[in-house]
Amino acid sequence: MEHQDCRRLLGSLSDFVDGELEAEICAEIERHLAECPDCRVVVDTLRKTIYLYHVSSQETSPPEGVRDRLFRRLELELKSEKES
What we know:
Elements lengths: L5 H12 L5 H13 L1 H20 L9 H18 L1
Helix pairs in contact: 1-3, 2-3
């Protein structure tokens, strides 16, 4: 795979990152990534985005009282904006 084949790589990127491609195609893509820093950045960015999505999608709750303080603050701001 040469640099002009970057578009072909991008077309298979999701399946590659998900590990759903045949070993031969993965090896071809890996060879390309070894030679193409631009495609490496794209693949690394996609992997990090997926990782961050999974980490951030875990249910978390704000500290106690934060939600109430936020809503009170927003209400105050909304009232002052309406008065202007």
